[in-house]
């Protein structure tokens, strides 16, 4: 019962269920590379604050929406099956979730943010997340990994300009070499 962090990597079917399972102090759970199905009773981990679901091919869960302390979710997809799992997790996530880290690059398609309208921080490596940000009126911090400000298109800027709480926008990729004046961006607040 004193376990605080559980990391399960590269396994087939996984069973975290049963009446004798008590994870009352578990604050972090990482499920990564599960090629079978992760059968998980989240009600047995009421103190869970961070859940990572990374390339999980199947998830049979109960009690997920009751996790009132869940603050952060990390997700990654490598196939359509893992995208389905991520969409299920994001769709059922409790309203307490404030941080989303999305590590998928390229295909498959961008997971749906579902009902995560209370997010205040997002980290992602894909521009395709930006069109989904419009309903996130509390989003304060957006970090775009492996992207530069010059990767943004006009439609991305339109969405970002409408986010009233956004105070921090970060890019991890440096601007291209060359004439810096050519790449300079001007940010104005409040919008005209």
Description of the structure:
The structure is a single chain. The chain is of the alpha/beta class. The protein is 13% helix and 27% strand. It contains 3 helices and 11 strands; from the N terminus they run E-E-E-E-E-E-E-H-E-E-E-H-E-H. Helix 1 links the parallel strand 7 (72-76) and strand 8 (99-102).
**Order of helices and strands, N to C?**
EEEEEEEHEEEHEH
Enumerate the strands of the largest sheet in spatial order, edge to edge or round the barrel: 1-3-5-7-8-9-10-11
Approximate strand percentage:
25-35%
Q: How is the quaternary structure best described?
A: single chain
Total strand segments: 11
Q: Which class of secondary structure composition applies to the elements?
A: alpha/beta
Q: Summarize model confidence as the mean pLDDT.
A: 87
Poorly predicted tracts of residues: none
The helix count comes to 3
The rounded Rg comes to 18 Å
Largest sheet: 8 strands, parallel
Helix share bin: 10-25%
| Overall form | globular
Could you provide a short overview of the structure?
The chain has 192 residues and is an alpha/beta fold. It is 13% helix and 27% strand.
What descriptive keywords fit this protein?
27% strand, 192 residues, single chain, eight-stranded parallel sheet, globular, alpha/beta, 11 strands, three-stranded parallel sheet, 3 helices
Helices and strands in order:
Elements: E1 5-11, E2 14-16, E3 28-34, E4 38-41, E5 50-54, E6 59-62, E7 72-76, H1 80-92, E8 99-102, E9 121-124, E10 141-144, H2 154-161, E11 168-171, H3 180-183
């Amino acid at each position: 019962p004193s376990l605080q962090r559980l990391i399960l990597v590269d396994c087939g079917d996984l069973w975290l269920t049963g009446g004798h399972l008590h994870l009352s102090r578990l604050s972090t759970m990482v499920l990564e590379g599960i090629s079978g199905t992760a059968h998980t009773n989240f009600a047995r981990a009421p103190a869970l604050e961070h859940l990572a679901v990374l390339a999980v091919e199947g998830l049979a869960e109960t009690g997920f929406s009751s996790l009132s302390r869940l603050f952060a979710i990390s997700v990654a997809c490598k196939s359509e099956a893992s995208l389905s799992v991520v969409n299920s997790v994001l769709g059922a996530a409790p309203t307490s979730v404030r941080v989303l880290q999305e590590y998928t690059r390229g295909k498959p398609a961008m997971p749906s943010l579902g009902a995560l309208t209370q997010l205040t921080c997002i980290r992602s490596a894909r521009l395709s997340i930006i069109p989904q940000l419009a309903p996130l009126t509390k989003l304060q911090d957006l970090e775009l990994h492996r992207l530069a400000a010059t990767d943004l298109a006009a439609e991305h800027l339109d969405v970002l300009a409408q986010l009233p709480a956004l105070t921090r926008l970060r890019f991890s990729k440096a601007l291209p070499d060359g004439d810096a004046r050519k790449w300079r961006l001007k940010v104005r607040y409040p919008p005209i």
